[in-house]
């Protein structure tokens, strides 16, 4: 915080100089319209006046005034978001706070003006500029003979069309023009040009549109292949050399999960070296001079996978860094042997260090599951209960399906690599953990009544698997062999699909804009397609093919996301501007590009590498044959290069059928010789001709759940109810009395009560209910249920009957190297301010436990090192409980994630708990260091806490609590 205040002072001084015509400091308008990047600099106009003219598309756009490295960020109100009215002046606070918003109905140029003539009180004005109407562009397809069109119906009874043409249809490498009638997300023409890329495969299907869309994905892959990357939070916003894959048009950095899923879906097959470079960029060892606690596992250098900045200060609130394994496994299959060996050795070391520390910091032995935020669904408000962002410790201890599927993949790959490198003991260790994890996922997260896996089990003091579902997690469970064939068939038949495809979560969250909520994401759709082809579900595969083709064709790009019921890249709801979305949307999003390439190569043509062999398992449905390849008797994939060998694949198609099903492989010829579906790479030549003849149409599975609704209407069958509130809890002679508050629900909604994660009551109405005969140490949560839709809410924040034993930092039993400070206007209670340097001491002695039982030991704290959605500075410490003889009776990692800031009376929260079985007697609690992501060298240039100024694992500490539970 001190560093930020100094930077702000320096900026104000430079603005003052600017007002006097001296040198000016760089500032930028950063928002959802430019990927929060630095494309829109505020140019100094003289006398402290700064301006930026920005072409902004329709939407409700979040933005801030910020410096390149985010050391300064200015907003209109540090407590709440403000929607700016054009022409109205807003005094800016020169400190961090919620985003401001600009609502735009029609694409236009907006002038953002910051008047810093009084540097201590800068003023923002936004004005729409009058711009002449652009002349109508010429038809890009005029005069061309090779023209094709694809048309889709819209949700409101109209239709949208994409047209394609080529001036050189007979060329080896074609050029294409592509136009659309869809209103595009970002400003620009309704047509584009691109070409097939030398060194990448190309398709000849008899359908110019299908061939063009594959070329589009290849061209976008090349655009995402960069020589340098950048992000405002790293290296002062300056470029970082890296022959890597950037994340998309608006995202110029390498993010672990985005890269990994993109590579797994298709990029590793086509450019393994660049994927390997990107994977290497997401590995890091310790920073120089950092003291590492003895409890930390792994090799001395600390090489491990980087968890990106995120919820509550990153790892281990979020633990899906293990998704790195999906990409690593594909790269290991596709790299030439000489490059594979050194990468395999490094991958095993990084995976092992990651696995061992995740086992210490994020594994729950009671459930057998790993804790942490859902993978990819990392915008807390979008897919968690509304109370979670203020109490992120509960997110830390929740267990999600998708993240656990990632841990299963990491364990399985590490076991295989250990076996390959001759470490049989390590291989057995990780293989055993993988087997146990698979069993735990099926025991703890499978919901028999839903026929699907729960997306997540609630955090501590609850733990129940909730009736919340996500398409990525379900798909990864199928593909990872976690789900049985019976479970896979049930999931595919029962997960809901809208008219444009499957949403990434189900049901939708009320009161939330489109992003993860109310959205389909092409890369998740591609995993659903892969799961459907694996299990033979034709209906789900057809829905995915249609969704991916439609999205790329009508948007002229492989977009980040789309509203799920309309398929729109932006659903402009003027009645509810706060619900407009997708909130941000980038063209050529890397995992969407990988998804499309993988769809064609991996599913349509069925080409993949598996255990040293070329695998050939095409999945051509009757619908795809009719609608995409109806004019052709064969389709071909030319110029695919795998481990230095060229492979051309020709699929011979049977006559089109009006029935539904998938065509079975009748025969395979490789270089004229009959073959099975697996061909050892050693048997391939430098150039290979593969011919696959498709024959009989098999019905396959046809189960699919279809849903539909007005995309502008909240509620109904596609939304869940709001989570209720447990407003009161009292233990009395007749049991435990609960006060259930509706939490904003109206109409026919009932409530279920959970005690210690088990449902003990259903069908209740809001008001009082008594759990008769219950003991004095239960913990309760409440869930809302809509009989009309069958959908359930998230759980309320849990409450426990026991009041707990609290010891404040001012208690004489406390010993620490820092003295308590406060209280004052912002902090209502005394605290150890900024406690947590590696050498800091904190202990509480002579804590009397009156009776034997199960206890949860928690720290009361506040961590304001960064906002709840940012940073690498979540508190991660080692807590030990010792009995009167000094024997350790419980020990482990506790987490103290970022918590919300307030101007006055900053609220305190509790850490994740350390479970302890204690006897009656006296105990001592000691707190020591562990580590967080700020200890890694890769974060040494991070602009905020934990970066340039050194690691940050500090927070304000208020005391300790022992809570008795069942």
From TrEMBL:
Domain of life (superkingdom): Bacteria
InterPro entries: 6-hairpin_glycosidase_sf (IPR008928), 6hp_glycosidase-like_sf (IPR012341), Ig-like_fold (IPR013783), MGH1-like_GH (IPR054491)
Record carries keyword Nucleus: no
The keyword Chloroplast appears for this protein: no
Signal sequence residues: 1-19
Domain Mannosylglycerate hydrolase MGH1-like glycoside hydrolase intervals: 253-551
One Pfam match: MGH1-like_GH
Biological process according to GO: carbohydrate metabolic process
Membrane-spanning residues: none
Keywords noted in UniProt: Signal
Name listed for the protein in its UniProt record: Mannosylglycerate hydrolase MGH1-like glycoside hydrolase domain-containing protein
Species of provenance: Massilia yuzhufengensis
């Amino acid at each position: 915080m001190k560093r930020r205040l100094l930077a702000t002072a320096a900026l104000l001084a430079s603005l003052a100089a600017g007002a006097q015509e001296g040198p000016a400091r760089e500032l930028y308008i950063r928002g959802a319209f430019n990927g929060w990047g630095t494309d829109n600099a505020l140019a100094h106009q003289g006398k402290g006046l700064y301006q930026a003219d920005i072409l902004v598309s329709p939407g409700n756009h979040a933005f801030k005034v910020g410096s390149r490295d985010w050391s300064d960020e200015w907003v209109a109100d540090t407590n709440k978001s403000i929607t700016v009215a054009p022409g109205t002046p807003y005094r800016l606070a020169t400190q961090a706070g919620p985003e401001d918003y600009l609502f735009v109905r029609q694409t236009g140029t907006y002038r953002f003006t910051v008047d810093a003539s009084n540097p201590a009180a800068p003023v923002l004005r936004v004005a729409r500029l009058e711009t002449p109407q652009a002349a109508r562009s010429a038809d890009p397809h005029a005069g061309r003979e090779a023209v094709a069109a694809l048309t889709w119906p819209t949700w409101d009874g109209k239709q949208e069309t994409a047209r394609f043409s080529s001036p050189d249809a007979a060329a080896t490498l074609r050029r294409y023009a592509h136009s659309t009638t869809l209103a595009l997300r970002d400003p620009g023409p309704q047509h584009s040009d691109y070409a097939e890329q030398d060194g990448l495969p190309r398709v000849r299907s008899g359908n110019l549109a299908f061939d063009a869309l594959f070329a589009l994905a290849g061209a976008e892959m090349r655009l995402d292949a960069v020589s340098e990357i950048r992000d405002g939070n790293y290296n002062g916003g300056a470029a970082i050399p890296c022959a890597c894959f950037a994340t998309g048009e608006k995202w110029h950095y390498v993010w672990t999960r985005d890269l990994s899923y993109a590579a797994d879906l298709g990029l590793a097959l086509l450019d393994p070296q660049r994927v390997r470079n990107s994977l290497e960029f997401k590995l890091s060892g310790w920073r120089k001079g950092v003291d590492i606690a003895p409890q930390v596992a792994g090799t001395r250098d600390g090489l491990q996978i980087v968890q990106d900045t995120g919820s509550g200060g990153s790892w281990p609130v979020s633990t899906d860094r293990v998704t790195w394994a999906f990409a690593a496994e594909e790269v290991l299959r596709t790299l030439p042997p000489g490059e594979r060996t050194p990468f395999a050795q490094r991958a095993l070391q990084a995976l092992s260090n990651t696995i061992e520390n995740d086992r210490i910091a994020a594994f729950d032995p009671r459930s057998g599951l790993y804790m942490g935020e859902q993978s990819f669904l990392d915008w807390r408000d979008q897919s968690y209960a509304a109370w979670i962002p203020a109490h992120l410790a509960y997110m830390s201890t929740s267990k999600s399906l998708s993240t656990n599927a990632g841990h299963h993949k990491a364990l399985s790959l590490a076991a295989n690599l250990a076996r390959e490198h001759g470490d049989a003991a390590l291989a057995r260790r990780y293989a055993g953990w993988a087997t146990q994890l698979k069993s735990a996922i099926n025991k703890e997260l499978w919901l028999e009544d839903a026929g699907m896996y729960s997306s997540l089990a609630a955090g501590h003091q609850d733990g129940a698997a909730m009736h919340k579902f996500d398409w990525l997690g379900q798909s990864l469970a199928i593909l990872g062999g976690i789900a049985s064939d019976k479970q896979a068939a049930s999931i595919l038949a029962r997960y809901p699909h809208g008219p444009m495809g499957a949403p990434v979560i189900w049901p939708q969250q009320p009161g939330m804009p489109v992003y993860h909520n109310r959205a389909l994401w092409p890369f998740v759709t591609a995993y659903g397609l892969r799961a459907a082809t694996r299990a033979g579900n034709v209906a789900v595969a057809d829905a995915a093919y249609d969704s991916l083709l439609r999205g790329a064709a009508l948007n002229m790009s492989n977009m980040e996301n789309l509203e799920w019921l309309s398929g729109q890249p932006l659903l402009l709801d003027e009645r509810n501007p706060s619900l407009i979305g997708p909130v941000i949307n980038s063209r050529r999003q890397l995992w969407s590009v990988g998804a499309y390439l993988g769809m064609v190569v991996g599913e349509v043509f069925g080409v993949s590498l598996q255990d040293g062999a070329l695998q050939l398992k095409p999945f051509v449905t009757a619908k795809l044959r009719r609608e995409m390849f109806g004019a052709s008797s064969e389709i071909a994939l030319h110029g695919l290069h795998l481990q230095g060998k060229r492979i051309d694949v020709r699929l011979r198609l049977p006559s089109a059928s009006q029935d539904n099903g998938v065509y079975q492989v009748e025969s395979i010829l490789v270089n004229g010789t009959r073959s099975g579906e697996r061909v050892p790479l050693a048997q391939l030549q430098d150039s290979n001709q593969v011919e696959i003849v498709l024959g009989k149409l098999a019905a396959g599975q046809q189960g699919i759940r279809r849903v539909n609704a007005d995309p502008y209407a909240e509620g109904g069958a596609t939304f869940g109810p709001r989570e209720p509130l447990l407003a009161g809890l009292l233990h009395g002679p007749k049991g435990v009395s609960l006060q259930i508050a509706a939490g904003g629900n109206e109409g026919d909604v009932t409530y279920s009560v959970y005690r210690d994660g088990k449902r003990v009551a259903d069908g209740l109405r809001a008001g009082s209910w008594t759990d008769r005969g219950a003991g004095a140490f239960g913990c309760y949560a409440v869930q809302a249920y809509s009989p009309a839709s069958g959908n359930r809410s998230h759980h309320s924040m849990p409450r426990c009957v026991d009041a707990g034993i609290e010891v404040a930092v001012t208690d004489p039993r406390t010993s620490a190297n820092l003295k308590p400070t406060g209280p004052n206007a912002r902090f209502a209670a005394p605290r150890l301010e900024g406690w947590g340097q590696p050498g800091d001491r904190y202990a509480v002695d002579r804590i009397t436990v009156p009776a034997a039982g199960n206890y949860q030991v928690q720290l009361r704290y506040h961590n304001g090192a960064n906002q709840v959605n940012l940073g690498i500075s979540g508190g991660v410490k080692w807590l030990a409980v010792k009995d009167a003889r000094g024997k350790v009776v419980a020990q482990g990692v506790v987490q103290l994630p970022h918590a919300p800031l307030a101007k006055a009376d900053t609220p305190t929260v509790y850490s994740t708990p350390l479970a302890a079985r204690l006897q009656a007697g006296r105990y001592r609690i000691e707190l020591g260091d562990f580590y967080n992501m700020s200890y890694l060298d890769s974060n040494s240039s991070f602009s905020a806490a934990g970066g340039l100024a050194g690691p940050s694992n500090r927070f304000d500490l208020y005391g300790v609590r022992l809570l008795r539970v069942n």
